[in-house]
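User: Good morning. I'm curious how magnesium ion would be positioned relative to this chain. Could you predict the structure with it bound?
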Amino acid sequence: MLHSAAYSFAYQQILVLIAGAVCLFGTWVGMRHFARARATDGATRHGWLFMASVGTGAALWASTFISILALDPLLTSGFEPVATGAVLVIAVISCLVGFEIGSRHFTLAPEAGGLVMGCGVLAMHFVALKAWHIQGSFEWNAYAVAITFVLGLGLSALAVNRANRPVTRWCRHGAAIVLAFMICVMHYSLTAAASMAPDASVSLPSYLLPANLLAVAVVSAVLLVMGSGFSTYIIDLRARTESADRIHQLSFNDSMTGLPNRIAFNERLAFDAAEAHEKAHKLAAFSIDLDGFKDINDLYGHGAGDLLLIEAAERMRKQLAGGEFLARQSGDEFLALATSGNYPHDAQAFAERISRAFAEPFTVQGHAVDLTASIGFSLFPTDTPERDQLLSNAKLAMQRGKSTRQGSICAYSREMDDSARKRRALARDLDHATERDELMLYYQLQTSLNDGKICGAEALMRWKHSKFGMISPGEFIPLAEETKAIMEMGEWALRAACRDAAIGNIPGTVAVNLSPVQFGREDLAEMIHGILMETGLSPSRLEVEVTESTIMSDQSRGLHILRKLKAMGITVAMDDFGTGYSSLATLHAFPFDKIKLDQTFVKRLPHDAAAAAIVRTVLALGESLHMPVLAEGIETEAQWDFLAQAGCAKGQGFLFARPVAVAQLPTVIEAAARFVREPAPATAAAPETVAA
Ligand code: C2E
Ligand code: MG
Ligand code: MG
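Assistant: Good morning! Here's the predicted structure, ligand included:
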């Protein structure tokens, strides 16, 4: 054949263009499949990965041969059939392995997967060039070959990086463009690396595939790629339409609020997550929890609670725009999804919109009730690529926000996981705290405000953790209540306090806090009775402190147990009065022996007029119900004076004594003697006291 340089050059450019175009289309289809693979799991994921590898592999194979032919299109040449087939196998396998690694979740997974694909592309070129027999001779330039290597590896890594870490919806196309660009670059760098000299004396073996036959094979490969890409696209589209229909069918399953239920939410989450993956969108999942709904239910009844839920759901639904989804999980918990493009602040804005739905008060049985919702959210795939994890993140964020302030909006952050993990570890340790002897009791003196004499002490639990040191009850009591470890711990505290009091370490009555969880045991009264018998403490010297939530959570059972205790001669104090509902009904339901006024009001005395008014009201209430009041958290003489003059019977606080271990109690009692003073004649109550 006549070898014309001008023709050859023109052909060369056309063939390089064709190689680039084949690669572009084939890899574009491949990337669509790869995106679906990343958005699914299990067998479906493997199916999509296989499709992606066959599509991309065939395109790379075809374009490799076209670009090789383009090196010198008019040169007489042929290809070894087995090696030519082997190149296709290498292409598909390296794509499969590259995609598989690329879609893993370790740090540099996409780049590692890209490098594997790059090695595959280099191996393909190497084998293909080996399989190419020309009527002439080759010469290679080592530097240019090295550059080809670097470019091939680098661009493959970039392509898989773009496909796996999309920033915009165009990145998926970017990956295909990078791969097509790589094929063209490889061609030109190989052209620069190889010099060919035609040599008519070289005879080609007869078993070679002629170049035109290979061209047919290449065209078939391209058609195969197009066909497979198109048909899977159709199948996928159909499947997704069916899934959308299914979601619609399931969508109105919560008969009370008319909102989609949890099952519909899960379906929608799977659907939206797949879509977000493919289009490189962000998806935000929200956990919405109404604050204090349980109390409203307890106070106004379940019928009123249901009506409130219906109205809350309706108000939130009115806030929804396109691409947003709201469902009811259960009780007063709602879930939402919002496709948020690529702007994470869209999620915050959505949460604020939902929050605004609660701005106006609700009307419950003619009363205006303020209701807030605590909202937590997490972004996919920024916070997690696992869609199941997404919802747990959102819930964690909601709980975290709620624990600091009700009605807050809180975005998930990774540190939350760490503290949740720490909490779980602490909860595990707490289970063994009693048996490991890590618990101890501190005692804080209680003083008669009239004459400054000591009248008793409150037992306050401390946890000396082997690793973290002293942990405050504010931190571990709620945890122990969650895990029910408080049952055993509370029993230990009762026994230890009664023993200390019985052997004369504690002056007057000993007050022990009881958790609402302890009221879950039927035999609480019997257990306390047993402890009194065992330690020999007179029931009149034991006082139990309960909070309003004990009465609120199960009225009849709580009251039943308290009556039994009272019948045994044990006194019962209402702790932390003023922080919960502080309803008259609670005080009315049971003849408490004492009201403990919470320290939040005492702290603001004597200058805060509102606090002073509340304190006076509670004192008047106590007097009319014949329940003496003990003020908690007295820190200054001025507070003591105010309370004593206002007729408050007893007090407890850092002014008189800090909580101390039983061994230090004698020292503290001795120091407290300086508070003893002449009783003021104006005060009404003169409570029983013991000498300091
Ligand atoms: P509480 O029963 O209201 O106990 C009073 C808390 O106020 C104690 O905190 C005490 O140290 C603190 N306090 C006393 N005087 C002052 C003061 O003048 N200023 C200030 N700022 N604080 C003062 P503590 O020991 O950290 O206990 C916290 C809560 O943990 C207790 O509140 C109680 O609800 C719970 N708790 C403690 N021990 C037990 C227990 O054995 N069982 C149960 N179920 N709960 C317990
Ligand atoms: Mg207490
Ligand atoms: Mg208290």
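The first strand starts at residue 77 and ends at 79. The domain at 425-675 is CATH 3.20.20.450 (TIM Barrel).
Let me know if you'd like a different ligand tried.
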